[in-house]
Amino acid sequence: MRIGDLSRETGVSVASIKYYLREGLLPPGERTSPNQARYDEAHVRRLRLIRALVDVGGLSIAGTRTVLAAVEDPHVSLHDALGTAQAAVMTRTEPVEDDAAARAEQAVAALIERRGWITNERNPGWRTAVDVLATLERLGGEKVAGLLDVYAEAMEAVAPHEVEAVVVDEDRERSVERMVVGIVLGGALMTALRGMAEASVSAHRSGQAAADRAG
Amino acid sequence: MRIGDLSRETGVSVASIKYYLREGLLPPGERTSPNQARYDEAHVRRLRLIRALVDVGGLSIAGTRTVLAAVEDPHVSLHDALGTAQAAVMTRTEPVEDDAAARAEQAVAALIERRGWITNERNPGWRTAVDVLATLERLGGEKVAGLLDVYAEAMEAVAPHEVEAVVVDEDRERSVERMVVGIVLGGALMTALRGMAEASVSAHRSGQAAADRAG
């Protein structure tokens, strides 16, 4: 099919398709003339995946490129693809070296030890957790930082189910694709439910006026 | 202080400061000459807040603008500011009307009913949850969609603690600022811990070779 057909089939504008081609997220079509190319079902599938990751999952273009590379590379194991998908949904910052960062490092190391998690400093979550805790301390958010074990316990409850749900037994590329979708969209789903669960708690606290709005 | 001093004090480049001024995230300084302005401690504080939300929390510029407007507007209640902060961490998409979307609508309505949550369609989490569930169905991620109650239970466990931690008793602007920081960074912290908890589960499953890497 031509680019216009691909656009109609997927509901993605021609301008966006060209952007994804330029950014290397969508593989080029088969060139049929100097300014025309032919696309196939693999492009339709890839476009749907890109839109799910970017629009629904909230991934950056760079993050999407990284996870798609893991989908395509036959040497990336399922375990490593899981780490790549998780890194893509996390923020990354330049580390700041101050007392807050030093305390945050210790807090994360102690947490891992206390929970008995098999992980280490190379996991992108480690660095992100340190950055977030240090930033919370710098901005006076110690009460939220104090929820470290509350969050850890909730994620321990979720993790085995999520890993079970995303590790599927199909050909490698399909399996990695499903894992990436599961990790990215599972996170977006949890954030959506968090918003409603907290609105509900807040409505209880604020009384009926707020409950009527329940925003 | 001049813009150069503001940059040194906060570690944010002059170019970034000018960008935040143009985007309306940082209020203008007091003009002292046609091409110079004076900044004060409120600007230092605001810049640190912007960097925390954008770099560590992963908010978009538009999302940051919305939550900062809630911080500044004395008519926005704590309950509504909570909703604004939560909306900022969620993705928003153009709704698609198909069978998957209709089933997702029903699944979310049934979930809210089953959990007894005080919330409704106006909560941004409702729309996001519907979009994510429908997208998961379209991409073959039904197993992850099947974790709806696992996610809901985890968020129910977290929500009262989070609301308690972010609702503080100071002047309104300071309270809303802390709430926004808590919601945005608390979410980033949870995502980081999710990454480590899942790497740990995956390492157990994949055996020692993966555990050594523990990526």
Automatic annotation (TrEMBL), chains A, B:
Record keywords, A-Z: DNA-binding
PROSITE patterns the UniProt entry points to: HTH_MERR_2
Domain HTH merR-type: 1-70
Keyword set includes Nucleus: no
Superkingdom assignment: Bacteria
Family annotation (InterPro entries): DNA-bd_dom_put_sf (IPR009061), MerR-type_HTH_dom (IPR000551), MerR_fam (IPR047057)
SUPFAM superfamilies: Putative DNA-binding domain (SSF46955)
Keyword Signal: no
One Pfam family from the record: MerR_1
Name listed for the protein in its UniProt record: MerR family transcriptional regulator
Organism listed in the record: Actinomycetospora flava
